[in-house]
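Memo subject: From amino acid sequence to discrete backbone structure tokens
Keywords: amino acid chain, backbone geometry, structure tokens, three-dimensional fold.
Body of memo: The sequence and its backbone structure tokens, given next.
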Amino acid sequence: MSQTDESTQASTDATVRITPAALAMVTEIRTKEENPDGLALWLEVNGTANGVYTYDLWFEARSEIGPDDAQQFEGDLPLVVPAASVDRLRGATLDVSGQGADAGLVILNPNTPPKLAAPAARAKGDLSGAVAQRILVVLEKDVNPQIAMHGGHADLVAVEGSVAFVEMSGGCQGCGMARATLSQGISVAIVEAVPEITEVVDVTDHASGDNPYYEPALG
């Protein structure tokens, strides 16, 4: 089947394309919710990790749709993209990856976050400020005791505005789960405890670790 056949039948100005397979899965999930006909599907960019966007996908009452939110219809399913995420998701596709019990929703997004320059040579910046000191406490008390069980360690490299730069070492360097460790653990812990920080960037050279998830192309 061609890519055109798999595309959504949404309007041409739709922010996100939804494949028939994804629409079927979402529709089935919605039927299990209370008052399914009154629910819309929200898709939002909620942060970044390792150079790509991360997302939230959830059902919420149609009455919560704001005047600046982008809304499109897929059959009788409203898809809502909050105003702040529209440009970040424009041209993205919601699809299904895997088969059977392993099938799940996946977002294919041609957009990537602006690249933030990491501190040169990952030399530690001035960590004497109040925000940096609070992040260090989070790493020492909440993060490192957990990842130490897997031989890993996370260090704060620098704080620039609302961005914290973190470097992993030990079992985390080069680990294929390092991205998940950052986005699901370290980043969440820091952002929740230190609201001045809105993004955590991993500046680890994972390509030089064991079993890296990134390997340079062979020339």
Observations:
- The domain at 120-208 is CATH 3.30.300.130 (GMP Synthetase; Chain A, domain 3).
